[in-house]
Amino acid sequence: MAYSRALASTAILLAITWHTQADYEALKEKVLHPHFELVQALRAVPTKAAADIKTKVSNIKTAWQHKATLQVAAALTTNDEDRIRAAALVQTAEAYIAAQLTSLNEQTDDSLQAAAAAGEGAGTITGSTKLLLTTSTNTNYCLGDANTDNSEADVDSKGCSDPDYTKPTPAHKLTEQDIGPTGFQRLGAVTTGQGKGASSMCGFFKHQATTHSSACLDITTAKPGKFLYGLIKAHNDNDVGREDQSAINPAGKGTTDVWQRIHSQTLRILRLQTPTLSKDRLQALEELTKQPAAATEIKRQIAIQQNKKSVSDITASDANLRKLYFDDNNDKLPAFLEHINNLKAPIGVDQSNPAATLKAIDTAAAANQVLEFSIYQLKQKLKQATAIVKKQATSIKESEMDETCEKKAKKITAKMGAKKLLKATKIKNA
């Protein structure tokens, strides 16, 4: 039925609700404030859509239950007035159910997809920021600002130490560049003094006490068409983002123009003008999960979601975690999670070296790995959400089946009663 199809379409909406409140609080505190407001605005669309549909489904199921109870009451009561009242309430319940089903049918595929696109936008920024915040474990590396002109070393003063998942490291000085609808479009290693933007600032960098013009990783986008929203820091009103790379601000205009462009692009998302994920990307995710470091990354995510301080606080065995989150059938795996532990991650940190220098990385592979991991997380949550939706749909069908069986039983009972009455009448007349 149409309403069941509409219900199934909400799986993607449920899939983006996994980010914890702590993630949003971290964004609010550590990322440029208008960016946080944009995330909240995007997230509100699918959250409301999913809530509305779930409420309607719940109301329909409740109405069916009441209707069945009233039908039984109407059949069993010996009081004519009560029977009439119960029958009238049954009709009221039927009218209510019909209205709710019509309302669900009016939730068109386009509107659901628009809500899903908005939710994916909100999920991408929180998921990517979470990934960046939690995969750097060396004390000499972090996400933040080194000593700048104000003589304030944010890296030292704001939590750049061994990872404490209850206190995310700063993200407000992330590189002035774009993240696309499916994650980072390109992630490149940059040598000292080569970073784009004011004073060679960039996202991940080797902390130096007196300068932030150090070797770092530079996040860029390959095509303006992939633009979703940017992680931006305003250097001043005339220089926002990167003049030579940025799709959001190619002319280096002021902050007002930049945010107007962000909101116009957000409207494009809501109108379904974002590219869809390619099939081969999704298939590649199935190869991800049996890498040696997969269980470690699961523990990282659990630590974040459960407000734990470190991976060591998660006591479940690696085998059980893999089985729980990845099943047993994924046997073609790229090396992303293994790269994290083998110091080949997009972060490129050599944790075995006390001096901590950036490793050379293949930029195309690094970008693909970040992208695949981001999609992989969404896919796992989508899988869980789909199971929930299917369960709800099954429950609705069972309710329909119960109602159909009840009607058939009544017809049979009525026929049997009529036969008995006819037989009794014949006997009496005889």
UniProtKB/TrEMBL annotation:
Record-linked Gene3D superfamilies: Variant Surface Glycoprotein, subunit A domain 1 (3.90.150.10), Variant Surface Glycoprotein, subunit A, domain 2 (1.10.470.10)
Membrane topology of the entry: Lipid-anchor; GPI-anchor
InterPro entries linked: Trypano_VSG_A_N_dom
Annotated ranges, domain Trypanosome variant surface glycoprotein A-type N-terminal: 14-371
Cited SUPFAM superfamilies: Variant surface glycoprotein (N-terminal domain)
Cellular localization per UniProt: Cell membrane
Region of interest: Disordered: 146-179
Pfam families reported for this sequence: Trypan_glycop
GO cellular component: plasma membrane; side of membrane
Keywords tagged on the record: Cell membrane, Glycoprotein, GPI-anchor, Lipoprotein, Membrane, Signal
Biased composition (Basic and acidic residues): 155-165
GO biological process, one term: symbiont-mediated evasion of host immune response
Signal peptide per UniProt: 1-22
Name of this chain's protein: Variant surface glycoprotein 1125.4904
